[in-house]
Design brief:
204 residues; alpha/beta; Maf protein; 7-stranded mixed beta sheet; 7 strands; globular; ITPase-like_fam; Maf-like; cytoplasm
Amino acid sequence: MTLWTLPHPLALASKSAIRASILTGAGLPVETRPADIDERAVEAELTGDGASPANVAGALAAAKAVEVSLHLPGRLVAGADQTLALGSERFTKPSDREAGRRQLERLSGRSHVLSSGVALAIDGVALWTEVEQARLTMRTLSPAFIEAYLDAAGDGARLSVGGYQFEGVGAHLFEAVEGDFFTILGLPLLPLLAALRRAGAVAA
């Protein structure tokens, strides 16, 4: 007997290796199918209505799941996205090393909030969306340390909002965290597993 009950793997509407790893680590078969959406356009439409970073994360997760589900008839698709807010300021993935340096300088010595959204969709219809939050406090970073960190992180500094991957060398940046580990990594696993159980996709 396996935990997964459906005939096809769960489609993950994300190219994130860590999200796929979280799901396979939980015993779920996963097929990665990155979504083709204009994230900035979705964000602009939502923020024009005064949407919070949490709402943006949830909307992006749902949009990704819905888009991929349109290409996989009858398949269950999970989408995920994450936003970072420092007060009213919202961050996206840094485009290059200099952008990553600027983000780390802004976050240094301050607390920020990560909002991680996850959604399920099938045949172009969003079935469920959830957003979980975590609060992270960066220690005060010297310019020399930021350079050393960027050297150590390499391209990984550009793969996540804020310029860090907490599961790797990014852990060196922090002095305190409040929140679920999976939420920090960008995939609220426990709410997702509960939703999959309700959908009959995993053993209850």
